[in-house]
Write a structure and sequence with these properties.
Strand 1 and strand 2 (32-33) form a beta hairpin. 3% of the residues are buried. The chain has helices spanning 4-25, 36-62, and strands at residues 26-27, 32-33. The protein is mainly alpha-helical.
Length: 64
C-alpha cells in the first residue's frame, strides 16, 4: 500500500500544473482558448488525474 503515495503525489502535481496552464491559456474576454487543440489534451489529462485522485481518496476513506 505504500506504493500509492508517490503515485498520488504525481497525480496531484499533474492536476495542479494542468489546472494553472488551462487557466492561463483561457481568454476570458472572448471565452476561448489560445490553442484549442492543446487545451483539449490538457483537459482530458486533467480530468483523468482528478478522477484517479478522487478514486484513491474514496478507497482510502472506505478502508480498502
Amino acid at each position: 500500500m505504500e506504493n500509492k503515495k508517490p503515485i498520488t503525489f504525481i497525480f496531484w502535481v499533474i492536476a495542479i500544473i494542468l489546472g494553472v496552464t488551462l487557466y492561463k491559456q483561457f481568454d476570458f474576454q472572448n471565452l476561448k482558448f489560445e490553442k484549442p487543440g492543446l487545451a483539449v489534451v490538457y483537459i482530458i489529462v486533467f480530468v483523468f488525474s482528478v478522477f484517479v485522485l478522487i478514486k484513491n481518496f474514496k478507497k482510502k476513506r472506505s478502508g480498502k
